[in-house]
């Protein structure tokens, strides 16, 4: 029989009881099932066969737990980063009492691109030549094999997802509904890291069903209160209003309850965001048909 190895789920026989748990055996080797690793709802008897997960304890010995992990040597899944150690790597929770290390050799060179606590990595389990248990990140190809193509109706939809691969000019993301997404560095306001959760919107759907996403706010989402007043008024009027940055202050005050300075600042923000433009004393929403009637209210 092969030697018992960390990372395996095996069925062993209860050999004998000890003050701190039970010793289990495969007929050749014994491993300890500590009372802290026992299923409290299950009654254990001598010579009983039980299923356990094998791991290495703090002294490097093979030990057993009745808590089965989220991932194994054959099963991949998303696991949460629970600790970061720049000397060794990041520790992830696999659902057992002992977290496992994803080596720094399996992470980006820059610490700024490492995942932080609460981020997610798609991993499996491996053992090294010394029998030590590690988490191993899945390849991009394996993650992409989970995906489904997006339809054209995905355009402009809000999406959430996880960064699984860093590229030279952007990042690859698997959305929660399993679309493959790309975020270009120009479509975000700050750098992203491996394993980071994101929320954005689809700005392009490719022929192969992959999507491009932007993490920038829609224009109306990034407006301040004064700009929102003007934007709402423009929408209410069908996209055009007979006021611009040279309109008299008393008219601005009467119509919007804003000072001339506040009106100009808000209008400037909307123009900077390429949401409105001015022409011949009028202000127009972009991508709206002009009103033929230019009479003031």
UniProtKB/TrEMBL annotation:
Pfam families: CvfB_1st, CvfB_2nd, S1_2, WHD_CvfB. Residues 5-67, 71-138, 154-216 form the S1 motif domain. SMART domains: S1. GO terms for molecular function: nucleic acid binding. Gene3D superfamilies: Nucleic acid-binding proteins, Winged helix-like DNA-binding domain superfamily/Winged helix DNA-binding domain. InterPro entries: CvfB_fam (IPR014464), CvfB_S1_2nd (IPR048588), CvfB_S1_3rd (IPR048587), CvfB_S1_st (IPR039566), CvfB_WH (IPR040764), NA-bd_OB-fold (IPR012340), S1_domain (IPR003029), WH-like_DNA-bd_sf (IPR036388). Belongs to the CvfB family. This is S1 motif domain-containing protein.
């Amino acid at each position: 029989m092969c030697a018992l190895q960390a990372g395996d789920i095996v069925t062993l026989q209860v050999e004998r009881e000890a003050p701190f748990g039970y010793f289990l055996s495969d007929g050749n080797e014994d491993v300890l099932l500590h009372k802290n690793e026992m299923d409290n709802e299950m009654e254990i008897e001598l010579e009983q066969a039980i299923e356990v997960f094998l791991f290495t304890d703090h002294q490097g010995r093979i030990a057993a737990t009745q808590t089965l992990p989220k991932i194994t040597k054959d099963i991949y899944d998303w696991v949460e980063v629970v600790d970061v150690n720049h000397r060794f790597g990041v520790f992830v929770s696999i659902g057992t009492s002992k977290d496992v290390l994803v080596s720094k050799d399996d992470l980006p060179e820059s610490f700024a691109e490492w995942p932080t606590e609460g981020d997610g990595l798609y991993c499996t389990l491996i053992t090294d030549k010394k029998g030590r248990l590690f988490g191993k990140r899945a390849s991009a190809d394996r993650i992409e094999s989970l995906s489904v193509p997006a339809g054209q109706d995905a355009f402009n939809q809000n999406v959430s997802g996880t960064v699984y691969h860093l590229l030279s000019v952007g990042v690859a993301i698997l959305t929660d509904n399993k679309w493959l997404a790309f975020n270009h560095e120009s479509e975000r306001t700050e750098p992203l890291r491996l394993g980071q959760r994101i929320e954005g919107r689809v700005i392009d759907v490719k022929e192969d069903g992959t999507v491009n996403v932007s993490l920038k706010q829609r224009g109306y989402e990034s407006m301040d209160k004064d700009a929102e007043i003007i934007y709402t008024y423009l929408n209410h009027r069908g996209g055009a209003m007979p006021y611009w940055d040279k309109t008299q202050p008393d008219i601005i005050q009467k119509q919007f309850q804003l000072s001339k300075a506040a009106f100009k600042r808000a209008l400037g923000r909307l123009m900077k965001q390429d949401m409105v433009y001015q022409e011949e004393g009028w202000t127009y929403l972009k991508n709206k048909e002009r009103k033929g009637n230019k009479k003031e209210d």
